[in-house]
């Protein structure tokens, strides 16, 4: 009899462990999508992330650990639109059988101004966020139809929160005087945000972060700052802020804060979820761009050695060298 009880306990324990192991696994490329998936799947699925929070998905190099993660996945969440150029190879080499959900399915993509490719940052428009979560929810339900009602309920509640977020951003951006609605950041991640909420965008880098800064773009940016008299420019949490800080210093504007572009914030920060990242960005943008002229700071005294001056100087030297080489022919 005693043996019999042990058998039953062992059996129960084994089944318990088995059900735990059978929990489906979702692998997301970036933290915005893993956060969305958590909101819908709750604790019924394991949710894993390839590019860690705070990492830069444009420049990411997959590790052997990622290949293992992808092999064990049941569902992979991918943004597409050139965001994760490294994913195709990772999936192919790992030989995973996982289904892939293109979370941007059905979104009208913006064409990059600098490259002949689509702009990947579609999540910056909260209405696109609604499309993302619909695609994720459909993928989750297809993976585990038995719990459809649970996922649908979570999805509906989450949907309302994102709709409210969209209204909040519109209402807040409207507080910025029209002439000051210019958002200057490190890389071109805010075009969708600008199109939806009515802000003009300028950045030092293009839609990706892997290019070098072009002198021409830098000079253009400085001209925009001077002409528009914007009170603040912004850094990004996933990009080294040094350059933007220097531009701000040279041009007598402040850095209005660090914005979340390609990753949510670390746990405990003001942007540690998809909803909070857009909300925190909006609050920083509104606070920065509604600063009064009296709050402006003077350009640095060392203006003679500013970036712009050095660059213009270099351009002149280059032009003169070119002219001399022509003359000597
Ligand atoms: Zn980006």
List the defining traits of the structure above.
about 325 residues, alpha/beta, Rossmann fold, four-stranded parallel beta sheet, two-stranded parallel sheet
Strand order of the largest sheet: 2-1-3-4
Determine the strand fraction and express it as a percent band: 5-15%
Cα-based radius of gyration, to the nearest Å? 24 Å
Broad shape:
globular
And the CATH topology of the largest domain?
Rossmann fold
Named at the architecture level, the CATH assignment of the largest domain is 3-Layer(aba) Sandwich
Bound molecules: zinc ion
Query: How far do the termini sit from each other?
Result: 106 Å
Would you tell me the overall average pLDDT?
A: 87
How many discrete structural domains? 2
Helix and strand content put the structural class at alpha/beta
Report the order of strands and helices: HEHEHEHEHHEHEHEHEHH
| CATH superfamily label of the largest domain | Nitrogenase molybdenum iron protein domain
Number of strands: 8
Major sheet details: 4 strands, parallel
List segments where confidence is low: pLDDT < 50 over at least 5 consecutive residues.
15-20, 301-305
Output the CATH class name of the largest domain: Alpha Beta
Number of helices: 11
Q: Give the helix level as a range of percent.
A: 40-55%
Task: Report what the structure shows.
This protein has 329 residues and is an alpha/beta fold. It folds into 2 domains: 2-170, Nitrogenase molybdenum iron protein domain (Rossmann fold, 3-Layer(aba) Sandwich), CATH 3.40.50.1980; 178-305, Nitrogenase molybdenum iron protein domain (Rossmann fold, 3-Layer(aba) Sandwich). The chain contains 11 helices and 8 strands. It has helices spanning 2-21, 31-41, 64-71, 87-94, 126-143, 148-173, 191-197, 215-228, 242-251, 274-289, 307-327; strands spanning 25-28, 46-49, 75-78, 99-102, 182-185, 200-203, 232-236, 254-259. The strands form 3 sheets. Strands 2-1-3-4 form a 4-stranded parallel beta sheet, with helices on one face. Strands 5-6 form a two-stranded parallel sheet. A two-stranded parallel sheet has the order 7-8. The longest helix has 26 residues, at 148-173. The chain is globular. Mean pLDDT is 87; it is low at 15-20 and 301-305. Bound molecules: zinc ion. Zinc ion (ZN) is lined by residues 58, 121, 187, 189, 261-262.
